[in-house]
Design a protein that fits this description.
Strand content of chain A: 15-25%
Number of helices of chain B: 10
Shape of chain B: globular
Strand content of chain B: 15-25%
Distance between the termini of chain A: 37 Å
Strand order of the largest sheet of chain A: 6-7-8-3-9-10-12-11
Oligomer: heterodimer
Distance between the termini of chain B: 32 Å
Radius of gyration of chain B: 21 Å
Largest sheet of chain A: 8 strands, mixed
Number of domains of chain B: 1
Shape of chain A: globular
Number of strands of chain A: 12
CATH topology of chain B: Rossmann fold
Largest sheet of chain B: 8 strands, mixed
C-alpha cells in the first residue's frame, strides 16, 4: 500500500465569476522513502494540490469537488478538523517558500519547535528541549543548544529554512511536503538545503513531496516527477526518463527553453504565448493554444492521462506519434 | 578600443545611523567596495553573485541612479561622476534600466502608451502624433499588439509587462542598458521569450548590456563576458567560455558547482563539493579575503591580506592568492 494516494482529486474555488476548479482529476501515489517532484509554473495547481492534502484551504471558498486523498489508508478529504490537526505535524508536515514569514518573530526558535512537539506529544519541558536540540542538530545548525534562544531575525535565510525543516521534523512525520523550499535562497545555500533533504530521506525513511517551478531542483532530488499545467497532470515519469526523453509537448518545451551550463545555443527555443488564467482556460487540451504539435482534435476534448508503461503516463493524444518521431 | 562605461575605484557605502534622532553614523554597509570595471561598446557583460553581494547597487551606481560614495565613472570617455542634474540629463537618455519586477515597475494608473511616452516627454517630446507614432513603433519592436497602447498594466501577463518595461527603457534610444534581473520574476516558459527579445534588440539597435542576474545558466547564455561579485567586490571576470569552462576563483567554482544539472549523464560522479556556511554581512565583511570564511582552499595569508584583482591570462582577472605566482 502506498503512503499517500490521490484519486481523481478536484478542488474548486468559489469566485465572482462562478466556481473555478484550480486542480482537476489529480491522481498519483507516493511511497515511503520516495521523493516525488511536482513541477509547474504559476497557476499550474501544484500548491493547491499540497494545500488540499494538508486540509489547509479555507472552505469556503475552496471545496473538494471530487476525488479522494488517502494517507496511510485513511481518507483525509472527509476527516474532521480535529483529526486533521493530529495528522498535520505528526503524519504529514509542510515547509513553505518564505522561511521568514513562516516563523513567528517574537518567539525564540526553541520555543517554536517545542510548541510543535507539545501539540502532539505529552512530554516534560526538558524532554521537549532535548527534542528541539536534537532536531536543530539534525538539520545542521551549529551549536544548537545556544541557538535555541535565538529569534528568527538573528538567523540567515538558509538557517531559517533549516529551522523550518527542524520544526517540521519534530514530531517525526512520515511525509514532508516542501513547497518551493529553496526558491528564496541563493544557489550555494539551495545546494545545502537540497542535500539536507536527501540525507533526511535516507536516514529517516521519510517520503518527500517537493513542489517547485525550478526544473533543475527536481532533477537534483526527485525519484519520480509529475508535470502540471493549468490545473492538470500532463506527464508522470521516473525522473531519469523524463529528462532523457520527455513525452508531453509541454515537458519537451519546458526542457528546451531553459538554458543550461552544459549546452551552447545561439537562441533559446521559446514556448510561444503565456499561461492561461484559471478562469480563461481553453476547452480541450489546456496546452493546445501554445503547442506546436496541436491538431484540430486537441481543441475539443481534454486528453486523459494514459499509462504508457508501468511507470510513465502522458496526457496527449499524439503521444504515440511524438515518441516515435 | 575605448570602453563605453568605465568605473574606477567605485565605492557605495550606506551609512547606518543610530542613537537619538538617528544623526550619529554608527557603521557603514559596504554595498560596493572598490570596483574597477570596463564595459565595451556592443557587448553584454553578465554580472552574477548572490543576494546582498552588491550587484544591483553596482548597476544602478554606474548610471548614477545611486550616487557613488567615491570613485569615478566614465561614460563614452567623459567623466560623469560629478555632473550636476542639468548636465546629467542629456546623458541619461543614453543610459537606461530594465527592472526585475514587471508588476512593481509600472504605474498601475497609467496606460501603456503613457508609460512608454513618459520618458520621451521628460526629455522634451510633445505628446503629439509624432510621439504616438514612436510609441507604436516601440510596441511593434517589443512584440506587443498596437491595441496594447490604451490598456493598463493589470491587463497583461508578467511577460507582456516586462515587454512594456523594455519598450519604456528603449524609447529614448539609449546606448547602454542595465538589465537588473529582467527575467527572474517570470515563469520559466516565458523567460526564454524575453531573453530572445533582449538579444534581438541588441543586434538591431547596437545596445550595450550590463545583465545582472543570479541565474548562472541565463547569464552564460546571453553574455559575452561575465563578472562574479562577492560582498561588494569583483572576484573574477573573464570571457564567458573561459569562466565557465575553467573558473579560477574558488567562489566561482562553487557557484558553478551549485547549479542543478538537468540530465543525469551531465553530472559528475559522487557529490560535488558544497560551500558551507552563509554569506557574511556587508556591514562587517571579513578581513583579508572576504571569501576566506567559506573557502575550501583557505590559507593563512587569506585571513590578513586582501587579494587584488589581477590579470592571470589575457582578458581573465582573478582576485585570489592561489592564482598569484609565488
Amino acid at each position: 500500500m502506498s503512503l499517500l494516494e490521490l484519486r481523481g482529486l478536484t478542488t474548486a474555488f468559489q469566485t465572482a465569476r462562478g466556481e473555478i476548479s484550480a486542480i482537476e482529476d489529480i491522481s498519483f501515489e507516493l511511497n515511503a522513502g520516495e521523493i516525488l517532484g511536482i513541477v509547474g509554473e504559476s497557476g499550474s495547481g501544484k500548491s493547491v494540490t499540497a494545500l488540499t492534502i494538508m486540509g489547509l484551504l479555507p472552505q469556503p471558498p475552496a471545496r473538494v469537488a471530487a476525488g479522494s486523498v488517502r494517507f496511510a489508508g485513511e481518507e483525509l478529504t472527509t476527516a474532521s478538523p480535529n483529526r486533521m490537526e493530529k495528522i498535520r505535524g505528526a503524519g504529514i508536515s509542510m515547509i513553505f517558500q518564505e522561511p521568514m514569514t513562516s516563523l513567528n518573530p517574537v518567539f525564540t526558535i526553541g520555543e517554536q519547535i517545542m510548541e510543535t512537539v507539545r501539540a502532539h506529544e505529552r512530554m516534560s519541558a526538558s524532554a521537549q528541549r532535548e527534542r528541539a536540540i536534537e532536531m536543530l542538530d539534525r538539520v545542521g545548525i551549529p551549536s544548537a543548544t545556544k541557538r535555541l534562544n535565538d529569534y528568527p531575525h538573528q538567523l540567515s535565510g538558509g538557517q531559517r529554512q533549516r529551522v523550518m525543516i527542524a520544526m517540521s521534523l519534530a514530531c517525526r512525520p512520515k511525509l514532508l511536503i516542501a513547497d518551493e523550499p529553496t526558491t528564496a535562497l541563493d544557489v550555494t545555500i539551495q545546494a545545502q538545503v537540497l542535500d539536507l533533504l536527501m540525507d533526511l530521506r535516507d536516514e529517516l525513511g521519510m517520503a518527500i513531496m517537493i513542489i517547485t517551478h525550478n526544473i533543475g531542483v527536481i532533477a537534483e532530488v526527485a525519484d519520480r516527477v509529475l508535470v502540471m499545467y493549468a490545473g492538470r497532470i500532463v506527464e508522470q515519469s521516473p525522473a531519469a526518463d523524463l529528462f532523457d526523453a520527455p513525452q508531453h509537448p509541454y515537458t519537451k518545451g519546458l526542457l528546451a527553453c531553459v538554458p543550461t551550463l552544459q549546452q551552447d545555443r545561439h537562441r533559446l527555443i521559446a514556448i510561444p504565448g503565456s499561461l492561461p488564467e484559471p478562469a480563461r482556460r481553453p476547452p480541450g487540451c489546456r496546452f493546445a493554444p501554445r503547442c506546436t504539435y496541436r491538431i484540430e482534435a486537441c481543441r475539443t476534448a481534454i486528453p486523459p492521462l494514459v499509462m504508457r508503461r508501468e511507470d510513465r503516463a502522458v496526457a496527449c493524444i499524439r503521444a504515440d506519434e511524438l515518441v516515435a518521431s | 578600443m575605448i570602453p563605453l562605461v568605465s568605473a574606477a575605484g567605485l565605492i557605495k557605502h550606506y551609512a547606518i545611523t543610530g542613537g537619538a534622532f538617528l544623526r550619529r553614523q554608527t557603521s557603514a554597509l559596504r554595498a560596493v567596495d572598490g570596483v574597477d570595471l570596463d564595459i565595451m561598446a556592443g557587448e553584454t557583460l553578465g554580472l552574477v553573485g548572490e543576494s546582498g553581494c552588491g550587484k544591483s547597487t553596482l548597476g544602478r551606481t554606474l548610471i548614477r541612479l545611486i550616487e557613488p560614495t567615491a570613485g569615478t565613472i566614465l561614460f563614452d570617455g567623459a567623466d560623469i561622476t560629478a555632473l550636476d542634474m542639468k548636465a546629467m540629463r542629456p546623458k541619461r537618455r543614453t543610459m537606461q534600466i530594465i527592472f526585475q519586477d514587471p508588476y512593481g515597475a509600472l504605474n498601475p494608473r497609467m496606460s501603456v502608451e503613457d508609460i512608454i511616452m513618459e520618458p520621451l516627454v521628460i526629455h522634451g517630446a510633445k505628446g503629439d502624433g509624432a510621439t504616438r507614432a514612436l510609441v507604436a513603433n516601440m510596441l511593434r519592436l517589443v512584440g506587443l499588439p498596437q491595441r496594447a497602447a490604451s490598456r493598463f498594466p493589470h491587463e497583461f501577463s508578467g511577460g507582456q509587462r516586462q515587454r512594456v518595461g523594455i519598450a519604456r527603457a528603449l524609447a529614448l534610444k539609449p546606448r547602454f542598458v542595465v538589465c537588473d534581473e529582467p527575467v527572474s520574476a517570470l515563469d520559466v516558459s516565458v523567460q526564454a521569450q524575453i531573453v530572445n527579445l533582449l538579444q534581438d534588440l541588441q543586434a538591431e539597435l547596437g545596445l550595450t548590456y550590463l545583465f545582472i542576474a543570479h541565474d548562472l545558466s541565463v547569464v552564460k547564455h546571453i553574455s559575452d563576458r561575465v563578472a562574479v561579485m562577492y560582498l561588494g567586490k569583483i572576484v573574477e571576470i573573464a570571457e564567458k567560455g573561459t569562466i565557465y569552462a575553467a573558473p579560477q576563483h574558488p567562489y566561482t567554482q562553487a557557484l558553478i558547482a551549485a547549479v542543478p544539472v538537468l540530465r543525469p549523464q551531465d553530472r559528475g560522479r559522487g557529490r560535488r563539493t558544497r560551500l558551507s556556511g552563509d554569506i557574511p554581512s556587508a556591514l562587517n565583511p571579513p578581513a583579508g579575503c572576504r571569501f576566506h570564511t567559506r573557502c575550501p582552499h583557505v590559507m593563512p595569508i587569506c585571513h590578513t591580506l586582501e587579494p587584488l584583482l589581477r590579470t592571470t591570462a589575457a582578458g581573465h582577472k582573478v582576485a585570489c592568492h592561489l592564482t598569484e605566482s609565488p
